[in-house]
Amino acid sequence: MDSVFDHTGFITPSLEGSVRFWSEVMGFEPKPSVERKGDWVAPFTGVPGAELKIAHLFGHGTHLEFIEFGAAGGRQGEPVANDCGTGHVCFKVRDLDATVERILAGGGKLAGRITTITEGAVAGVRGLYLRDPYGVLIELLELK
To answer: Are strands 8-11 and 62-70 parallel, antiparallel or unpaired?
Structure first.
């Protein structure tokens, strides 16, 4: 396949809230948000009547996109970590405990709990899954 990876995107019920969390708590730089309402949006997304608010955020060597669907609502509730198609982002951090506290203070939620991995390539590393305020899974691994 002749291609270049561009970004990872997440659906959010609140673009403003997601941008605030991912910039203020996680350290990403937001670029101006845009709205897309053209005739191309519904066939492109496969969502009839879709209107989009989109934000692109950059940091930590990556590009994240958050999309809030208007006019056509989506399924409510957080995805479960083992739902097919559910993704997550992973960060390696120097101070796991302080990073967890910062995420929780910024509106994030625990999905799991701090645990030491006992097998595989990262055996001996502490880590866990958390969620941003709107359900995006965040994996943290502590740097040794």
So the answer is: parallel
